[in-house]
């Protein structure tokens, strides 16, 4: 669809969704679709829930966030369950300001933006539809029209609780325009839109010390006082503060904790009673989600100030920590690069992963558990198998530091370093070493890192570099084998045939000549030695493998190359050991002969075709691995 067609389509859709009717019509609609009367908090919760929830291992994964926020499921689950879900049930938390606390560039703004854009879309769906008194600058809930003394009866008939009082403006309009006939008041369907200031607002204080409350609650329109005769005529008031405009939806409060406490007091009544004071009017009821965000140090100094106590108890703090999984961090970088102007640059395979290894290490706390170091912890967190540890251990590790993820290197820093390396060197292709180098250089200029942290981080650069060396060697060695998986499988089958014959004290049959042969001890040992299995331990190891094979057979599963981790490692190492000399010589020779040249070209072609390199990064990789193997 062309863009013009899409715009047209959107407009048609908007026309189609429009609804307008009297309050009496609205009540009929309510009978049919009672959910349209839900509170703002309930709508946010249902929006998240309706996008889908996946459950795995007792953990919930909200699909609503999955395209934009990676690796922070636990924090999101807590936020949705403890705040939105409870608030949707009209529990007290609804009356508190939601304060997201987390380290810089940890995704707080991303989260808030997702909620805003999400609500805009959701209000266009059947489930998320919102109705309001037509012509009201605050899109007031039509049910406020129901007089207090009839609300119990309304509840009995409709099962809907009405909270909040009709605003002074609509009270007056009811009398003047509708002669008090509630049933005639015109109601319309509204669509949330931040641009049009409908149901979505952002408040950013201009001067935190002398902020005018009118920006939040609206102000008197002096030009119309003469017309209406008095300041207390609601028609002489402009209900155009951010709180007014965000009514029924949500308001983001930026830099909230930087505001003067006197200013924040105005928020007290809103959060406590669901209403706020504007001008010379009775309290105005509001139904909206207020979200603010802050970092840890700002929050600490806020609560340290005694004057803030009252406010403090009306805030619900939810942590938004950094992601702690290497693979998810890689996805974050990929997303940020796609969104940036770097997307045309070739980023060699593993470059982002190696950067992510570094970053995650800076965020992890030293484990207390026996036999585990930071690197193992990092792998376990990422869901990798680490011999001797299971998922129970991962939970225990997480419990050691409930505050983990609130410090360390942020994703924006890494992206900035990548782009600075690209721009400075005018590269069109960047590899893992370029990235690490740039991150390292940047640490010296990074203002908010202490000297101790800088030293620790330098060590992590070295660790990440070592990880890269292992990855790079493996990659090249694999590319040297014509068909790596095939060769590994052949070697393993061969090994298993021999092991089987050995354990059953059988002979093997030569597939070509049909001759009987004794098991090939030399072959078996050459593989077992790769993972340090001694002469004494070989029998037990071979038997263990046979047991594993029969266990697989019983379950009807196929035993293959990946079924036994140590065996896989042994096979891989054996393949590489056989190759080592040829890889070493071919990659490091300055003047390759014809057959070496052919091999190099083959390997480069394979790296490009199958492993995502381009010719520059593939050549760099080969040269680097050559130098590593010759050390
Ligand atoms: N867990 C995450 N998943 C996906 N992207 C993330 C995550 N954390 C950070 N980002 C990305 O990092 C960048 C910075 O995030 P964002 O601006 O949302 O952070 P913030 O917490 O609001 O930071 P600040 O404290 O500086 O305001 C964004 O591009 C965001 O998409
Ligand atoms: Mg932000």
Automatic annotation (TrEMBL):
Source domain of life: Bacteria
GO MF assignments: protein kinase activity
InterPro entries for the chain: P-loop_NTPase, Prk_AAA, PrkA/YeaG, PrkA_C
Native organism: Halalkalibacter hemicellulosilyticusJCM 9152
Domain PrkA AAA: 21-371
Protein name, entry field: Serine protein kinase
A Pfam cross-reference name: AAA_PrkA
Keywords: Kinase, Transferase
SMART domains reported for this sequence: AAA_PrkA
SUPFAM superfamilies registered for this protein in UniProt: P-loop containing nucleoside triphosphate hydrolases (SSF52540)
